[in-house]
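Field reference: sequence -> structure
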Amino acid sequence: MKLQNEGRKIMHHPTFRASVTCVRVPVYRAHSVAINAEFEKPVTVDAARAVLRKAPGLQVVDDPAKSEYPQPLYVAEQYDCAVGRIRQDCAFDNGLAFWVSGDQLLKGAALNAVQIAEELMNNSR
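Structure field:
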């Protein structure tokens, strides 16, 4: 929010919107990604958390009051990815911003391809 508010002042643009994620993390063997998603209709943070909790292979780690967020250190050597820091996106009207961390050796392109193929095979039966 500081970047957006400062940007409004510096550029004399009172409606300037920015969506920003800043992270400093030591990385053992996991990658993280900041995601900004825009939807056709408004989505609440609580609704997003409820849907994400049901997703296979995903753990919701999102308790801002306790400063609990996904961290690469804690997902290393785990098959599931972690999602958190779920919030309304400041730049999109119907947007959410969130953070996902996952072990790149256990959950990556090769495993994703196998899991997609398995899902397709199961759905074709």
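Note: Residues 37 and 96 are 5 Å apart (CA to CA).
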